[in-house]
Structures are given as C-alpha cells and as structure tokens.
Amino acid sequence: MARETFEFNLGQKINVLSDKAFRKSSENEFEAIGNVVITHMKNSIYGEKAKINFTTGDAEVIGNVRYISPVMTLYGTKLKYNFLTREIDLDNARVLSDNFVVTGKKIRQTTPEIVYAEEAEYTTCRDCPESWSVFGKNVTIELGNYVKIKHAFIKINGVVAMYFPYIVFPIKQRRESGLLFPMIGFSSKEGFRYQQPFFWAIDDYKDATLTPSTFGNRGLGGELQYRQNFNEKTWLEINSLQLNDKVYKPFKINSEVSGDHYYRHFSDLEFHSIQNHNFNNHFYFTNASDLDTSRDFDFFTNNKMRGTEIGGGGFLEARSSLFSLTGEGYYNKNMLIGDPRQFDNHYVQLLPKLTLSSVPYSVLHSNYPFAKNISFGLNSDYTIFKQNIADVSGPIRNARRLNLAPYMNWQLGNLGPVFFSHQLKLDYQSYTFPTESDKKFIKKGLIFETEAKLELERVFGLSFTEEKPLDLTIDTLKSKVTQTTIGELPAIKNSKDETITFITNNSFRHSQEYKIKHYYLSDQKFSGNSKFRDQIEIDDGQFDYVDAIRSKEHLTNQVTAQDSLPLSNTIELQWNNRLIKKSAKIFDPYVDGRYLKDNFEYANIAFFELSQGLDLNVKSDLLVDRLTRLYVNTGLTLDKTTLSVQEFYFHKTYDHKLTSTAAYNFDRASLGGRFTYYSFNTSNTPIAKLVGYDLVLRASDLFTFKNTIDYNLITKNITQSNYSFIYSPLNNCWKLEFNYARDLIEKKFGLLVYINYNENNFTSLNVR
Q1: Does the chain have fewer CB atoms within 10 Å around its N or its C terminus?
Q2: Model confidence at 420: pLDDT above 80
Q3: Confidence of residue 131 (pLDDT cuts 50, 70, 90)
Q4: What average pLDDT is seen over the chain?
C-alpha cells in the first residue's frame, strides 16, 4: 500500500505521514491511521492512530506513542498534544533523557521547561525499576535544572528502603542546594553509622556541606566543609569533623562505652593563591583535639595528613626573570609521642626559611676556544631551627643557619666531538646558637666539577600520517571465503567499495651520552663551636643533609645523600641511553593554530643509565678498592608491558639499594609487581626486603576483583593486604563493593554501595 503524506499549517508547518488518512471538513478534523509519523518544528510524534483538530490545534495520538524533542523522548499509550500551545498530556508515560528516566501514570508538560508527573519513579538505571528508583506521588522536572520529588520512597529492587518527605536531584551543571545521598554503614565494634550531607550553594563562588552524623556507639557529631573560589587560581577550603565521643578516653584501648563524653575534633584549613606569573603562595593549618583522631577517623583524616605531624605552615614565592625569593615556615605538633594530649616542646620547628636563587648570569659568550660561555649564579637560604622549649642537656637543636652556594659555570667548548665544561661552587654554612655560650660555627670549602661529554644519536624512519584508499573488490571478498562457506558469491563486475584509511608511520630516535666527570673538594675549613662540630659528624646530630661534612657526606645514612659520590677526589663514568618514539597526529583542519606546533607526540620507549665512581684518594693497587657506588637505572615501556629497575651497589660494603617494578595489561586484567631490597642496617635505613603485587581482574562486565599485597621477606609477614570485589550491573546506576583490608595492626571489612544519581556521578552509600 502506498503511504500518504499531508502538509498543514497551524502557525507552523505540520507534516503527517500514515498508511491511511481521512479528513472531516464539517468538523475541520483530520484522522490518520497506521504507522503515523507527525513532525512539528523540531519535534516528532509516532503512533498507530492520530486525530487532529485544526480549529483548536489539539491532537490525540493512540498506540505505542513516542514523542521526540531535542531534550527528551516520551513513551506512552495515549498522547494529547496541542500544536499551538505545545502542551503535552501522556498516559502510562516514560520520559527518557541523556542521564535519567521517569516512569509515571500520567505526565503533563504545560511549558517548554517544566514537566509534571503523577505517581512516578525517577532513576538513572537502564533496567529500572528492577534495580533502584525513587517513587513519588508528585514529580516535577525542570528540564536542564533538577527533579523535585515530594513524599519520596527510595526503592531497591522494587522494595521500599527509605522515605524522604522531599528530595531534589540536579540534572544540570549549575549547583543547587539540597540533600545529598546519605552515607550509612555498620560496624561490629562501633555499631550503626549514619551521615546525612546537606549541600548549600551559597553563590557561584562559595559553597558549604553540612553533614550531621551519628557515629554508632561513639555518639553524635558531624562534618563541615566550606569552599570558596576567589578567582581562577585562588581558593580556600575548610574541613572539620567534630563529635562528643562516648567511647574514647586517652590511653583507652578497647571500644567499650566509657560512660562519659569526650569532645574530639579534627580540622584542616588550606589556602592557595596565584596572583600572577611573579607571585604565588600556599598555606595550611591542621589541628586535632588529640593525636588519636588520625587513627579513629582515618576515613576523614587520611587525605588531610601531611606526614607524622599536624600543624600549620606554608610559603610565599616571588619570582622574576632573574631570581626567585621564597619564604616558608612550619609550626608542627609531633604525633610520635606517648601522650596523645601532649605537645612535644622539644620538636624542632622551622621558623622560618628564606631562599634566594638566581638564574645563571652570562658574563661572556664567544666562539673562542676555552671561552664558549661563562656564567655566574647563586643558591642561598637562611633557616631558623627552634625548639619551643630549648633542651640544653641534649644536642644543639636551636640554630640559625646561613647557607651560601655561589657558583660559576664555565663552558670550555668542543674539542672535536667532545664538549668540555667546568663548574666551581663555594659551599659555605654559618651557624649562630642562641642557647650556647660559644655561639658561632662556620664551615666552608670549594667544590670543583669538570665534565667531558660525547653525544651520539641516530634517527630511524620518518614520522608522518598519510591517507590511503582501501579497495574492497569482489576478488578480495572471494579470497576470504573458506571451504566451510555454503555456496558461492555471484560474479559482479566493476564492483568496488573505496574507503579511506590512515596509515601512521613512526620514527625512533636513539641517543647515547658518554660522560667523564671529575669532582674535587678543597680542604673544608671549620671554626667555632666544637660541640656542634662533633655533633654533625653523626647523622642524628644534623638538621638535614646540608649540615653534613662534605668529605664524609657519602657515608651518611641520610636518604638524600646516601647515594652520592665522595667529592674529595673522584671520577665518575656515565653512559646514558634513550629510545624515543615520535608519532604524527592526524591533522584536524577544524582546530586552529595547532597543526604547526602540536602535530607530534613523543613517548619514551626505553632507557638505560649507568654510572660508576672511582675514588682517586684511595691508596690501593686493586681497582675494586677504588670503586665507589655503582648506579644502574633502566626501563622499558611497550604496548602492554612496563618494566623498571633501579640499583645502587656499594662495592666496599657490598650493600644494595634495589627497586624494581613490572606490569602487564591483559584484555581483562592487569598485573603489577614490585620488589625492594635495602641491605643497609642503620637507625635510619634498616634492612628491608619487600615484595608486592597489584592485581585487577575483570572477569566480566559485571564482576571485578582487585587484590593488593605487600610482603616482608625478612619478618615473613604480610605488611598489608587488600581484597576487593566489585559488582557493576549493566544498568550503570549502582555498584556494590565488598572490601577486606589487613595490616600489622588491624583488620577491616567494608561494604560500599555506589549510586549513580546523575551523569555517571557515583556516590557511595556507606560510612567510609
């Protein structure tokens, strides 16, 4: 049967396509029957039968109704639509948008922005209402804004789980005040926990989240978060947790109710500002009622701790094209003490530290031999180390240190393919001790560093992208037919399907660098306080690695200086390799200004670095006695494989510092392993042999298993392990995670439920 098309005009053009059509001139009505398609402006209506009144503009569509607009799609059994007012009345309706679904007994749209639903359910699931939904007697949808539900019942698998008198779901980018999803959970030790966040959108640049909470047996409390954005790169954030704890008492180790209330809090403030290219600053302040809060409320404190102390600090930095000036200071509370209420007055504070650095200033640049370039620069800092209460009986811990390191870089130039350079640096420290009778100490010396470098490189291939037509002729198709195919393809002459394919050609650059470096330290001179001179001979007596005696710096147990070479009179041999892949990007003519400056990508495929020191001051005929530490660093990155190994070997003591990692990505899994070996046995770096792995196994689209384990080969203990099982249904609206974690102190079981309430924004329903 031939389908009929009709065109009408009711202020706007209306097209109707159907199998049959009738027009009643007396009643000024039009009726279409069979596979009806109506188009009006940017909207389309589908159904089995339609009746249109040209006087009133009313239309009634019955049977498998579908209404499609630019912002949503409606499904139902019966649709009433007015072409003049564009009002919609739909029975047994379902609203589909990009990020939500609403199913209701009746849906009405009186304005282009607002949709009303009666006895309706809201969800983000694709299989709902089987997974989760929110049912309400009255649902208001403000398109592009939010969904409001009165007398809301949260249903999981069709079962009512929770009631809210009023709930709002944002369906827009602009923030709105309202209740967020609660965080609930249960612990066998602490009981039932419930946290109900309320988000307050103060304005476009400020917001706050108030979270009244009940922490099980511990009692009532809450969390507070305040955020403010002053401009693009200046912001303030405040976080605080507070409660009257019915369980905690200092030195109490069980979880039984103590019969009293102990006020506890953990608060953190952070401020960051970048005014312009020349000035920036960052400040923070963290405080707690007791030192045990970091353990009892680790879900809140873990990402707010900055080490083994709490307190305040920050920096101010000013920079120009010639120099930078930085001021920083920290006043911290040591957490590694016995009494959780005590302040460690002997803890050394940094109040403050001023750093002045300059760029190298070029004073000579020529083509003459041995005078290619000469430049000067400066690195310096002034630091105040101070105890809150000076401990005069122990080592010196109150000092003011001036550290000066002016340097001269002298590039001698090339001799054939070899490039020569030289650096001279003054190493000068001056100390003042306010609490000592002998208030001065100075140490100084000159460090000479000479380098000869040879660089070789080779480029393989040319990096470019080309378009090439891909011909699929019938001969090609016949060649793909196997003997198991039933029948034959008919012979078709001149049959060709041309498509365009992009072929990417990569180039590779291999560079080698050979270096010979000579370090020489002039006799370091000392004057002043002999007590401090003896103190810095050992690691525990130093404030940091700057205090080390340079001739013995490589013997220190400080991690920052442990791998260094002796500077007294040493030759270092280096061999460095890099393999870099260069790939051309596909040219996009619609992106302005990128093609000439952003048309390549670079990837480090492999590297190998080797360094060996030779101490010329050692008087021995055996080469092995002159060898200092050996350094090897190598890595490889392929499509699915990543490998890296870093090794420091000390010939005289036979000690190792080895760190290695390996990872491989399968189609449905990823596995990564690591091994660490430190053979030093000191107070700062005890012997360590650690092995561990990370496994992620995606058994299917529904199930994911994660496992992380760290094992100590010396103590033969699992230092920490984590097992996680995640169920992610295909509806993409909720996830379920079972978690088990264990370390040397405790074991934890966890159950996390994630709800996708809008735009793939999964929020956990749990107490962390």
Answers
A1: N
A2: yes
A3: low
A4: 85
How many CB atoms neighbour CB 145 within 10 A? Answer: 17
From the number of C-beta atoms within 10 Å of its C-beta (0-12, 13-18, 19+), residue 302 rates as exposed
Q: What span, in angstroms and rounded, lies between the C-alpha atoms of 154 and 588? A: 48
SS3 681: coil
Q: How many other CB atoms sit within 10 Å of the CB of residue 535? A: 18
Strands 348-358 and 703-712: unpaired
Unique residue bearing structure tokens 């000076």: 390
Kindly state the tokens that stand for 599: 């048309």
pLDDT at residue 660 tops 80: yes
Q: What φ, ψ does residue 335 adopt, rounded to 5°?
A: -95, -10
Amino acid at 188: S
- The C-alpha atoms of residue 468 and residue 477 are separated, in whole angstroms, by 19
Residue 63 Rama label (left phi>0; alpha psi -120 to 50; beta): left
Query: How far does CA 589 lie from the centroid of its chain?
Result: 32
Burial class (CB in 10 A: 0-12, 13-18, 19+), 102: buried
Q: How many CB atoms lie within 10 A of CB 757?
A: 25
Largest CA distance in the chain: 121
pLDDT at 489: 43
Provide mean pLDDT across the span 656-661: 94
pLDDT of residue 144: 74
DSSP secondary structure string for all residues of 357-411: EEPPEEEEE-SSTT-SEEEEEEEEEEEEEEESS--SSSS---EEEEEEEEEEEEE
Print the SS3 string covering 259-314.
Answer: CCCEEEEEEEEEEEEEEECCEEEEEEEEEECCCCHHHHCHHHHHHHCCCCEEEEEE
Helix (H) or strand (E) holding 625: helix 623-626
Per-domain boundaries in the chain: 572-764
How far is residue 109 CA from its own chain's centroid?
42
Separation between Cα atoms, residue 726 and residue 749, nearest integer Å: 14
Question: What DSSP line would sit under 637-680, residue for residue?
Answer: E-SSEEEEEEEEEETTTTEEEEEEEEEEE-SSEEEEEEEEEE--
Tokens of 696: 């992620």
- Give 697: exposed, middle or buried? Use CB within 10 Å, 0-12, 13-18, 19+: middle
HEC profile for 524-580? CEEEECHHHHHHCCCHHHCCCHHHCCHHHHHHCCCCCCCCCCCCCEEEEEEEEEEEE
In order, the DSSP letters of 210-278 are EEEEEEGGG-EEEEEEEEEEEETTEEEEEEEEEEEESS--TT--S-S--SS-EEEEEEEEEEEEEEETT
In this structure, the number of other CB atoms found within 10 A of the CB of residue 516 comes to 15
Backbone angles phi, psi at 99, to 5 degrees: -135, 10
- Within 8 A by CB and 6+ apart from 247, the residues are 190, 217, 218, 219, 255, 256, 257, 258
Number of Cβ atoms within 10 Å of the Cβ of 276: 7
Query: What is the reported pLDDT for 598?
Result: 67
Task: Supply the pTM of this predicted model.
Answer: 0.69
Summarised one tens digit per residue, pLDDT across range 531-556 is 999 999 887 788 888 888 877 665 55
What is the distance of C-alpha 625 from the center of its chain? 47
